[in-house]
Amino acid sequence: MPDFITQDTVTTRYWHDLDDGRVQCDLCPRFCKLHEGQRGLCFVRQNLNKQVVMTSYGRSSGFAIDPIEKKPLNHFLPGTSVLSFGTAGCNLACKFCQNWDISKSREMDSLMSLAAPEVIAKAALAEACRSVAYTYNDPVIFHEYAIATAQACKALGIKSVAVTAGYVCPEPRAEFYQYMDAANIDLKAFSEKFYHSITGSHLAPVLDTLKYLKHETSVWFELTTLLIPGENDSRQELEAMTQWVVENLGPDVPMHFTAFHPDWKMRDKAHTPTETLLMARDIALRNGVRHAYVGNVHDKAAESTYCHQCEEVLIGRNWYALSDWNLDASGHCRYCGSPCAGVFEANPGTWGAKRRAIRL
What we know:
There is one protein chain. Helix 3 (117-126) crosses helix 4 (143-155) and helix 8 packs across helix 9. A nine-stranded mixed beta sheet has the order 16-15-14-13-12-11-9-8-20. It has a three-stranded antiparallel beta sheet with strand order 1-6-5, with no helix packed on it. It has helices spanning 100-103, 108-111, 117-126, 143-155, 170-177, 192-199, 203-216, 235-249, 274-286, 300-303; strands at residues 10-11, 15-17, 23-25, 33-34, 45-48, 51-54, 59-60, 62-67, 81-86, 113-114, 131-134, 159-164, 182-186, 220-227, 255-259, 292-295, 305-306, 313-318, 321-325, 356-358. Strand 14, helix 8 and strand 15 (255-259) form a beta-alpha-beta unit. The model is unreliable at 1-6 (pLDDT under 50). The longest helix has 15 residues, at 235-249. The chain is α/β, with parallel strands linked by helices. The protein has two domains: 10-54, no CATH class; 59-358, Aldolase class I (TIM Barrel), CATH 3.20.20. The protein has ten helices and 20 strands.
């Protein structure tokens, strides 16, 4: 553990030497090959003294308390609050990034505040947050910091939530998800062309992560796809995506279809029409996805959770605030007794839709 007064650089595990004097980072499938002093695309991992170090350990771009539904997670401790934080940098290069001021930041020292893992865990406990979310930028790149924070949280009974694109290599992935209780995975599209040309990455490793989470872990996870007009919103692609989800992950993994707004390097694109989101939701439901939602728009009917058996409302939502609650203490429908997949308690949380920034 570093000295948090003087040190924010720690040695990492996932790298190896190359014959030409460089080192290769093996954290994510980008496999950055770095000369001495060079940083990877993520910016926070660097070759120093012939080893890869993380240069932002213990530093954050800010903290806020959010509703868990904002992650978005609709089936994990609904109504509760989550302490959210991120660092800076990212291992993808999405042209449409909605958090580009954080993920593309190159001014680490001026942007970030200091916070040890134990401080974050104690703050979550003091604020009555049920979980801590590693978000805003991808926790893959602050792997060591996220794990240490998750360990500190677990000691205090606080859950850990990863909000990530799922672009990570198998060995660090297995270590990371040992400590996560839930995740929202950003399935950005369902074509290699989109991943390669618009995010600078590849689709296959993300699909591999999804299958790994479903079949080799107990982590609760949900999927989010930001629908960009003319890029990943065709009926054909949405049919293929939702069919793949049901065939490979099963019908109970919730899917969130969210609205794009022009940002970063895609300011020429229009906002996503609500009709497109509802079309995607309808396709998902017809293909067997039991729980499909829309996001970044207001549509109470399409934000709420329904029993897959009797179709009664189980959890009503209005933006991020809960209204109806028709699950019994064991997470079953009060009307017909069918189970609803997720992580539920006898009663929902009461945090509501508010967001509150805090200083640690």
